[in-house]
Design goal:
Elements: E1 2-3, E2 6-7, E3 11-14, E4 17-23, E5 27-32, E6 41-50, E7 58-63, E8 70-73, E9 83-91, E10 96-99, E11 102-103, E12 108-110, E13 116-120, E14 136-141, E15 147-153, E16 157-161, E17 167-176, E18 182-184, E19 188-192, E20 202-209, E21 214-220, E22 227-236, E23 239-247, E24 253-256, E25 267-274, E26 288-289, E27 297-299, E28 304-308, E29 319-328, E30 334-340, E31 345-348, E32 355-365, E33 371-373, E34 377-381, E35 390-398, E36 402-409, E37 417-424, E38 429-437, E39 443-448, E40 459-465, E41 471-474, E42 478-479, E43 483-489, E44 492-497, E45 507-516, E46 519-520, E47 526-528, E48 534-538, E49 549-557, E50 568-570, E51 574-575, E52 581-583, E53 587-588, E54 600-602, E55 605-614, E56 620-624, E57 634-635, E58 638-639, E59 643-652, E60 658-667
Parallel strand pairs: 3-10, 53-60
Antiparallel strand pairs: 1-2, 4-5, 5-8, 6-7, 6-9, 9-10, 9-11, 12-13, 13-16, 14-15, 14-17, 17-18, 17-19, 20-21, 21-24, 22-23, 22-25, 25-26, 27-28, 28-31, 29-30, 29-32, 32-33, 32-34, 35-36, 36-39, 37-38, 37-40, 40-41, 40-42, 43-44, 44-48, 45-46, 45-47, 45-49, 49-50, 49-51, 52-54, 55-56, 55-59, ...
């Protein structure tokens, strides 16, 4: 077969020519799909003829791009008769793929003058190609610029009832193809005339478009076939104001894009009008209005949402009740509750904190055919931000007279109050001893002076209180260290203390320190592992006379504290309660090695100390109140003679008890 100068060794026929659309009532848009499996595409060729010479096709275009799937044939006579087209796809191999031939839809509209318009047209292909919808959509243009679908039919003709008084009507036919394109006929029409008055419209409902918040007014299409449109009224400042006109009898939904329905109640009324300008009665006495869902009120302490809304009026049939819908975290809405018509509030209990809740209200009647929905209101069920940590880092005896606590907590959380508790042995419970309102620093230093650090140890805990007066987090429990020291036998001091508890890092060791005359030896006399809470100090080797002996224990925290703390907790200072010991030599030689005569003592309070020496005639030859000082054997700058002398010493114990010692010694010359 030869096709206009190009030979084809093999031709295939496919239905890839899909749509012919008359544009501007003169041009034709040709739309096709890429033929199946064209591995060696060369070109498309488009052929045309009209109904006057259906066998005389002419080549009107060659297209070299395989992805081009449409072409506009300009200045045709498609408004006067059908035009025919087919495509041929040529391949490099010499093969070709031929489409079937399609004919433009040619519409003819006649006016017999009896109030009807007679429409007739042709098929594009007989039978229709497989991808065609095989139905004809009839559109009418009225008023000018508004095209409305008036009928869908499989027939090739239509009798349309005229619903205007005197005006021009235009019509066109469309056929959809499942490829996505649409075939369109030419436009034809004329001047038509009719007279009728429509009845008052019946409003189905006034609702809210939830995606935009605009009001939606829905009504039943007028029973009068000549109804041309509807006047939409909104109640504004005590007056009914026309806000828009809806054209078309079957256009029975209006979206008020100027409404503010999520903030204010919007009331609406309708009136229908026909093509002659006759207007029906308006629905002003039975208006319908939107439901206003007020802001959802959240109670974080009770974990409830309270919803309130305005009542819906004039639903026909009468309203039955309200349905409350909820969505959690943007999941689909589900029915939460159904309420009778008289109830306009609802409380949603047992909310999940950290969850987004969306609500809307829907009014309904028994038939459920008429409904009205409110705007969607969104709110969160939150819990006051909970603290991540509440930790007593330390409890230590400070200045040997009170306990200092170090509390570390999450101050970025919502904390109304920090409460400090101390355990009471008498009541067997923790009692509040202090509180801090709305703290901003994450470390609190608390000094507890209402304690007896030498008599007992104390346990503490802290509670963080949120804005609902609820405990949001309890701390660890820590305790101070109580150290006791006593003489177990001459020369041995027995120390005992309680274990420190509460550290996350545990106990690394206990350091034991000796204090002499109020001076702390910086080096511990012993380091004990966790779990050992007693130690015996052998003091026979102590030679420092006139001292007050006491001890201190320090607990050292281990390395495993996840919060980064490594603390030291000190005990009280435990003074050894024992009688003083004082030693006085019975002789001394001023010219010898020990050339100063003085006593040696331990466990003494060196304040209020007195040391006096008398000769055998009772005269005082030496006196001092300083324990380190002694007699060098002289009196008034002269050497005292050898012989027997008398000494008298008075002093106090560390606890303040009075002691004295008298005796004699020999001065050797």
């Amino acid at each position: 077969m030869i096709f206009w100068g190009i030979s084809a060794s093999l031709s295939q026929v496919q239905y890839y020519l899909k749509c012919l659309a008359v544009e501007n009532n003169n041009d034709v848009r040709i739309t096709w799909e890429i033929p199946t499996s064209p591995p060696d595409f060369l070109e498309y060729r488009i052929y045309h003829t009209d109904n006057a010479s259906p066998a005389n096709f002419n080549l009107i275009s060659i297209i070299n791009n395989i992805n081009t799937t449409s072409f506009i044939h300009i200045n045709t006579n498609a408004n006067q008769m059908p035009n025919l087209y087919f495509l041929k796809t040529f391949l490099i191999s010499g093969d070709s793929i031929v489409s079937d031939t399609l004919k433009t839809i040619y519409l003819q509209v006649a006016n017999p003058g009896d109030g009807d318009a007679e429409l007739s047209w042709n098929r594009m292909h007989n039978p229709s190609i497989p991808s065609s919808a095989n139905v004809f959509n009839i559109y009418k243009e009225y008023p000018l610029g508004y095209w409305n679908l008036i009928e869908i039919t499989t027939a090739l003709s239509c009798l349309h009832e005229i619903s205007i008084c005197h005006d021009s009507l235009s019509f066109r036919i469309e056929v959809e193809d499942n490829s996505g394109c649409v075939s369109v006929s030419n436009i034809d029409g004329g001047i038509f005339e009719d007279i009728t008055k429509p009845p008052m419209p019946v409003i189905d409902s006034v609702s809210i478009e939830q995606s935009t918040g605009n009001s939606i007014v829905g009504w039943q299409p007028s029973q009068a076939g000549d109804t041309e449109g509807y006047l939409v009224y909104r109640y504004i400042n005590t007056n009914w104001i026309i806000i828009d006109t809806v054209w078309g009898i079957n256009n029975s939904i209006y979206i008020d894009q100027s409404s503010n329905s999520c903030v204010n109640i919007q009331a609406y009324a309708l009136a229908a009008f026909d093509s002659c300008g006759n207007k029906s009665l308006g629905t002003f006495l039975i208006p319908q209005q939107t439901i206003l869902l007020d802001n959802v009120l959240y109670d974080p302490c009770e974990r409830t949402h309270t919803l309130t809304w305005t009542a819906y009026i004039n639903m026909d049939p009468l309203i039955t009740g309200y349905k409350v819908f909820v969505s959690e975290n943007n999941w689909p809405f589900v029915l939460l509750s159904t309420l009778p018509a008289g109830e306009v509030s609802f409380t949603h209990n047992n909310l999940n904190t950290g969850t987004q809740y969306r609500y809307f209200i829907r009014a309904f009647n028994n038939s459920n055919n008429n409904t009205s929905s409110s705007c969607i209101k969104v709110d969160y069920a939150f819990q006051y931000r909970q603290p991540a940590f509440n930790y007593f880092a330390n409890a230590t005896v400070e200045n040997n007279d009170h306990i200092r606590l170090k509390l570390f907590f999450d101050a970025s959380a919502t904390i109304r109050q920090v409460k400090i508790y101390r355990y009471d042995d008498n009541s067997g419970s923790f009692n509040e001893i202090d509180s801090y309102n709305t703290p901003t620093d994450d470390i609190l230093i608390i000094d507890d002076y209402n304690v007896s650090v030498h008599k007992r140890f104390y346990r503490y805990r802290a509670l963080l209180i949120d804005s609902c007066d609820a405990v949001s987090l309890q701390s660890n429990v820590v305790n101070s260290i109580l150290l006791t020291a006593e003489m177990s036998n001459p020369g041995n001091i027995y120390l005992q203390w309680n274990e420190f508890t509460g550290w996350e890092g545990g106990i690394e060791a206990y350091n034991i320190y000796r204090i002499i005359d109020g001076i702390l030896d910086p080096y511990p006399i012993a380091t004990l592992p966790s779990g050992m809470t007693e130690y015996t100090d052998e003091i026979d080797a102590l030679t420092t006379a006139g001292n007050i002996l006491s001890y201190l224990v320090a607990a050292i925290e281990g390395e495993d504290n996840s919060l980064g703390f490594k603390e030291i907790s000190y005990s009280n200072e435990a003074i050894v309660e024992t009688d003083p010991r004082i030693y006085v030599p019975n002789a001394f030689r001023p010219d010898g090695i020990n050339n100063i005569f003085k006593p040696v003592g331990i466990f003494m309070n060196q304040q209020n100390y007195s040391f006096r020496i008398y000769n055998r005639w009772g005269n005082m030859v030496f006196q001092t109140n300083s324990f380190p000082d002694g007699w060098n054997g002289t009196f008034k700058g002269k050497r005292s003679p050898g012989g027997v002398y008398i000494y008298h010493i008075s002093f106090h114990s560390p606890e303040g008890k009075s002691f004295e010692k008298k005796g004699t010694f020999v001065l050797v010359r």
